[in-house]
Amino acid sequence: MILITGGAGYIGAHVALEWLGQGEEVLILDNLCNSQRAAIERISTLAGKRPEFIQGDVRNRRLLDTLLHDYPIDAVVHCAGLKAVGESVREPLRYFDTNVGGSLTLCQAMAQAGVFHLVFSSSATVYGDCATLPINEACATGQPTNPYGMSKLMSENIMKSVASSDPRWSIGLLRYFNPIGAHPSGLLGEAPTSTPNNLLPYLLEVASGQRPHLSVFGNDYPTLDGTGVRDYLHVVDLALGHVCALDTLRGRRGVSIWNLGTGRGYSVLEVVSAFEQVTGIKIPLSIEARRPGDIARCWANPQKAIEELGWQASRSLQSMLADAWRWQSNQLGQVDVRQAN
Ligand code: NAD
Ligand code: UD1
């Protein structure tokens, strides 16, 4: 059985669904601070099988000890955490407590229970402003400019130290690039509870009339059209990466680091234009100043994951955008996707 912390959230729910589809038993631990119980129902509907679900906190050591004792858990995927960069600047202690404290407590409980396979949701943010592109895993980690990024790097460092202290550990640090999209059914996707910070959720709210325009943060970057370039990755591809990572970890020891990205970057204006083509909806834009802390360009070299995991992202930008819009439209009860994939 696989324990997925944060498994009611955007990425964890897709990971849970993939494993259930492969006949694995899944236990989700989530305190629902940024998700809803309905996600568990949706996972069950799509998988035709119900995951075990416990509402609780990953920092609760006693609860973790009980779960690791009561269920036949042999691996953990640690997705639980807080992820809003701006909020992390305003509330650093909450971010360190949840993201670093959660990782620490989880590793302690796992060691005590003798469970040594761990997959961690890390982020390309740990590279900072990497001088060479595409970014491969050998690039030095940078200086994160915000507590969120620091908390990911600190968690990675804790896990590296833990693995060097005991050869039984097998830990995969998955550095996600920019996950977007939704399950193609339109039943599972990202559901921001407050004003979104990331490009896609914000764009979807503009498209559905909830916000007047999309702010483009800077058009004077040294990129093809002056706007920021990122490696957008379909959340279903990302979820499949977790399955491949754990399969690989079962045959090795120590810490393994894998970039999960497509290897291709798109600018903000390219994303907007592709979205307009896929949905037929015009997105009003407002060109604004650069967002503090943003970098110009960031995309992965996914070669290591391709070779070692046998994993490669295959879904196009168009299918990411069509799936995201289907999910958004379903949320609003107005299915309105012109073109499927
Ligand atoms: P999300 O907010 O949708 O999911 C996180 C889940 O963790 C939520 O369901 C939340 O309720 C739960 N959670 C938070 N604190 C908890 C706690 N103390 N105990 C138990 N559950 C708790 O976010 P997501 O996009 O699914 O991200 C999952 C992980 O991937 C996070 O660690 C995030 O930092 C990381 N990540 C996300 C992205 C991205 O763009 N979405 C990029 C890189 C890394
Ligand atoms: C951001 C976080 C990063 C985190 C990642 C996933 C910052 C500085 N970085 O990355 O730490 O791991 O999300 O959660 O917040 N953009 C707009 N208008 C918008 C929103 C975004 O033009 O309303 C632009 C940005 O300037 C950027 C691109 O779109 O060029 C992507 O932005 P975003 O989706 O926020 O992701 P990242 O900045 O890559």
Q: Kindly state the percentage of residues in helix.
A: 40-55%
Structural class: alpha/beta
Summarize the main sheet. Answer: 7 strands, parallel
Order of helices and strands: EHEHEHEHHEHEEHEEEHEEHEEHH
Helix count? 11
CATH class of the domain at 2-180 and 233-260: Alpha Beta
Describe the overall structure:
Keywords: Carbohydrate metabolism, Galactose metabolism, Isomerase, NAD. One of its GO terms (biological process) is galactose metabolic process. It is an enzyme of class 5 (isomerase). This protein has a domain at 2-180 and 233-260: Rossmann fold, CATH 3.40.50.720. The chain has helices spanning 10-21, 38-47, 61-70, 85-90, 92-113, 147-165, 199-207, 235-249, 268-279, 303-309, 317-331; strands at 2-5, 26-30, 52-55, 75-78, 117-123, 170-176, 178-180, 214-217, 229-230, 232-234, 254-260, 266-267, 285-288, 297-298. The two termini are 34 Å apart. The chain is built from eleven helices and 14 strands. Helix 9 crosses helix 11. Residues 334-341 have low confidence and may be disordered. The chain has a seven-stranded parallel beta sheet, with helices on both faces. It has a three-stranded mixed beta sheet with strand order 12-9-14. A two-stranded parallel ribbon has the order 7-10. The chain has 341 residues and is of the alpha/beta class. The chain binds nicotinamide-adenine-dinucleotide and uridine-diphosphate-N-acetylglucosamine.
